[in-house]
Write a structure and sequence with these properties.
Elements (H helix, E strand, L loop, with lengths): L1 E2 L5 E7 L7 E11 L7 E8 L6 E7 L4 E7 L2 E7 L4 H5 L3 E8 L2 E8 L10 E2 L3 E2 L1 H7 L3 E8 L7 E11 L6
């Protein structure tokens, strides 16, 4: 996924990838290509009812900071977390993961090996509220790259692997 230089916008892919709506784990192995560390840009994995207005998302910005958010009707509420280093973002073994079960979403990230998922994950704070449960209960999965101003160069992420499983906990 690549957003050209001097462009404000996003590039993404969307699919009904999740095996069931009420319990799933969705993970992506990704790699930042080229410049990281500067600019107002981010990459994200999304899952839920749809990919445009009602979903949960795990977003990583250009310096590795993570944001977990829920979108309800296009309006969001988010939680910030520390994430991987820029070197880990570029190494091709970074995994981002969202898991959903019984109304709880657990975002996580980890560094795998040889293309395999990590043996241990850094779990972020699990989230349970009525809105999270409402928008996560779907089968749509997405990946997107975004830039928010024209002052950044080309923003490219390779999506190397996508996994979606049920029941939760298989990854």
């Amino acid at each position: 996924l690549s957003v050209p230089a001097a462009t404000v916008g996003s590039v993404g892919a969307y699919s009904s990838l999740l095996p069931r709506a009420d319990a799933w784990t969705y993970a992506a192995r990704v790699q930042a290509v080229g410049s990281v560390g500067t600019g107002d840009k981010f990459f994200e994995i999304r899952a839920g009812v749809d990919a445009t207005a009602n979903y949960v998302v795990l977003r990583i910005n250009s310096v590795g900071a993570l944001v977990f958010a829920r979108y309800v009707g296009g309006s969001s509420y988010s939680w910030n977390h520390n994430g991987p280093s820029t070197a880990q973002m570029q190494a091709g073994q970074l995994w981002l993961r969202l898991s959903f079960l019984i109304g709880i979403v657990v975002p996580a990230w980890g560094i795998g090996s040889g293309g395999a998922p990590p043996s241990t994950w850094t779990q972020l704070t699990p989230r349970l509220d009525d809105y999270v449960a409402l928008v996560a209960n779907g089968k749509v999965a997405a990946v997107e790259a975004h830039t928010a101003n024209t002052g950044v160069g080309t923003w490219t992420w390779d999506v190397l692997s996508l996994l979606a499983v049920a029941p939760v906990g298989a990854l």
